[in-house]
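Sample entry (89 residues):
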Amino acid sequence: MHCKVILQDILQVRTEWLPSIQLIGFQGRLDDQHTLFSDLNEKVNDLLTKKTANQYLVILPELISVVAIERNDVKFIPDVMTAFIIPED
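Predicted structure, serialized as tokens:
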């Protein structure tokens, strides 16, 4: 017996336009994301520039991952960390 499921009946799609999001965190290979999250968790309390404690995993087209948190200040970036901006939609 086959059951026909229509996605519009069970899902609601919403489009939301967001401003750019400034991040600070660690960059590495996609396979290293668990280590990168661990590194971020160790450093997160030391960051004065954090805006929230929400963590992001950004996967770039080259399969490079950026594990980061939102930041307020773009002036200070620790040597071992990287800055990244998710462009606005």
